[in-house]
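Annex B. Sample input.
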Amino acid sequence: MAETSHYSVLLHESVDALITDPGGFYIDGTFGRGGHSRAILKQLNESGRLLAIDKDPEAIEVANRLAAEDQRFQIEQGSFAEMRRMLEGLGRTGEVTGILLDLGVSSPQLDQAERGFSFLQDGPLDMRMDTTAGESAADWINRAAEEDIAWVFKNYGEERFAKRMARAIVNHRQQQPFTRTGQLAKVIAEANPAWEKGKHPATRAFQAIRIQVNRELDDLQEALAVALEMLAVGGRLVVISFHSLEDRIVKQFFRRQERGDQLPKGLPVMESALNKRMKVLAKAQKAGEKELAENIRSRSAVLRVAEKIK
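Annex B, continued. Sample output.
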């Protein structure tokens, strides 16, 4: 299959924040099509090493070619939430210099109709990052209870009309099961009574289904906790998120680790006893005007960086 080009969002900002030692050991938790990985490798010396992770078989194919070209690089297929297992196998637990998590869906995934992520192009209703495992979007949407679909739309898509959409989906599937993205997008659009200017009426619902099918928020919460343990003291965790739910999880995690243990007020406890694990470096960063002009998908990206101190 021909590769579709992919624009790595906040590329230089994220890599510059990540690299503190050119001879260190780094993780790119979402290889995608390798934009961030290649930029990281450019900043590493001969002793530096990079482990990349991705669920997507197509991304693995691209990564295998890079691994054949550069001995400092290796790829593992799976979720970044599985970092502990991967690092234990390499004997690298607690030795990681920096971890980058780019939480966005890659352009090739969005743009290839056959992957089933897009409501703009008709294709099989799949949406799995790893097309070889797990339940597809069609599987889920055809079996889930109406209240569960509504919950996912409301909580993962922040969709105001979640109940109306869920009801319309259940009514439709009783007559004809869902198999195509265009079919589902049409039903959702017709159930949405207030279309937002410049936004497809199925945008939020499709996002919610994708998050549900791929366990994206569960994986993120697990990965943040594991990443903290895998980092060496002084190591950095760099996260690029693309919607408010992800960013809230990252922001709250960083805040908890920076604040330390929350004890009742008035207890005579020294600052050093609060178990503060990280410090946040700089304010959250967004794409600049030049990047926004080149890639409209970067408009929602937020970059956050924290360093392990204990």
